[in-house]
Predict the structure.
Amino acid sequence: MRAKIRKLIGGLPNYKGPLNPRVTGRLENFSFTIEKVLYESLPGIFVTASVYTPKQPGKYPGILLQNGHT
C-alpha cells in the first residue's frame, strides 16, 4: 500500500539539508513549558510544532501528534 501511494504522488523528496529550527514563543505553566517551534521540512516549506516539556524531573513518554484541518 505504501509503495502504491508513493508511486501515485510521484515519490517523496530526497532532501537531507538543514531544518533551520527556531523557537517563536514560549508559554509557562506550573508543571510544563510549551515552546512554539518553526522549522523547514524543505527549503521554503515551513512546519509549525508545539513542544511540551515537563518541569518535574523523571522519565516521560514522547508523543508525536499529526495535526490537520479535519
